[in-house]
Amino acid sequence: MRKTGFIAIVGLANAGKSTLLNSFVRQKVSIVSPKPQTTREQILGVWTDDDSQMVFVDTPGFLHSKNALNDYMLRSIDSAVSDVDCILVVIDGHDGIDGDELAQIDKYGKRGAPVVVAVTKTDITQPANLVPELAKLNGIECVREVYCVSAKRNRGVEELKQALKKYLTGNEMYFEEDDVTNRSQRFAVGEIIREKVLLACEKEIPHGVGVAVNEMRFENGVWDIDATVLVEKASHKPILLGKHGAMIKGIGTHARESIEKLLEARVFLTLWVKVKEDWRNNPSVLNELGYTNRGK
Ligand SMILES: Nc1nc2c(ncn2[C@@H]2O[C@H](COP(=O)(O)OP(=O)(O)O)[C@@H](O)[C@H]2O)c(=O)[nH]1
Ligand SMILES: [Mg+2]
């Protein structure tokens, strides 16, 4: 019988949580960019092998700012860390560990689940700089183990995954053997488009971007996909379109290539840009885009 269970991945925005999740399950289930708020809600990544099934819960990073979408993201972190077998705190080794992070680890520890720390981005961190940072973790009682990894270079990730198995407490299979995520294909397609927008845009626009996949049709070996990129200010629309539509065209090309890999088929992608003032505070739009608090 396999050992099974849930492992929550938490930490500051941009620490490298989603990259680590993708590395654990060896597939891109969560989008990655240098911008905070890339991950907006719980995404599950599932790893099943001969002796275990580990369900990793990716979460949005912790951020302070006020709107309904952020409230939603914070609730989703909270629900992710309750009732898991282990809390994996991801720390950016390159940035070092600050007081807030230490306090946060302590807080997670009080929830009862064992805490394991993954210090990531070691590929761009000098070992000499890492040592004093690691020493800061010494005084924190709830930390069971500390692993240094590079998710980008896939170093130390397998060892960490093996180590996490000992914390699994269940023996019920939550997913089919070949499932890698809980999210639908449609959601994954929307997320890929959002990732390409994030990578292409500067500063404030990314936070205000939402993607609605209006239609996905598979015909004659080709996926016909129609999606709308929502922006929250009229002034953002021309920026996203770019000169003679060059920006949105580039986003569309990158997105199409990624979606073709995901769906393993040719894709015909049509993208629209629409202004929807203050959509991040509009429950019906949030619902339409799939940002609904759902249980795991
Ligand atoms: N050099 C390096 N960069 C990384 C590593 N892991 C993540 N990153 C980068 O850090 C940024 C944030 O990563 P992401 O996984 O989206 O962080 P999250 O907000 O915690 O989910 C992205 O630009 C990643 O490419 C790593 O191991 N090494
Ligand atoms: Mg993320």
Find the structural class using helix and strand composition: alpha/beta
CATH topology of the largest domain, by name, is Rossmann fold
The molecules bound to the chains, other than polymers, are: guanosine-5'-diphosphate, magnesium ion
- Extended strand count: 9
Largest sheet: 6 strands, mixed
Task: State the low-pLDDT regions, or none.
Answer: none
- Mean pLDDT value: 88
CATH class of the largest domain: Alpha Beta
In CATH terms, the superfamily of the largest domain is P-loop containing nucleotide triphosphate hydrolases
Our count of helices gives: 9
Q: Estimate the strand proportion.
A: 15-25%
Estimated radius of gyration: 20 Å
- Shape assignment: globular
Helix/strand order: EHEEHEHEHEHHEEHHEH
Helix content: 25-40%
- What number of structural domains do the residues give? 2
Strand order of the largest sheet: 2-3-1-4-5-6
Terminal residue distance: 22 Å
Tell me the CATH architecture of the largest domain.
3-Layer(aba) Sandwich
Descriptive labels:
single chain; about 300 residues; alpha/beta; Rossmann fold; GMP Synthetase, Chain A, domain 3; 2 domains; 3-stranded mixed β-sheet; 9 helices; 9 strands; about 25% strand; binds guanosine-5'-diphosphate; binds magnesium ion
What would you note in describing this structure?
- The chain has nine helices and nine strands.
- By secondary structure, it is an alpha/beta fold.
- The chain folds into two domains: 165 residues, P-loop containing nucleotide triphosphate hydrolases (Rossmann fold, 3-Layer(aba) Sandwich); 104 residues, GMP Synthetase, Chain A, domain 3 (2-Layer Sandwich), CATH 3.30.300.
- A hairpin with a 2-residue loop joins strand 7 and strand 8.
- Helix 6 packs antiparallel against helix 8.
- Magnesium ion binds next to helix 1.
- Guanosine-5'-diphosphate binds next to helix 1.
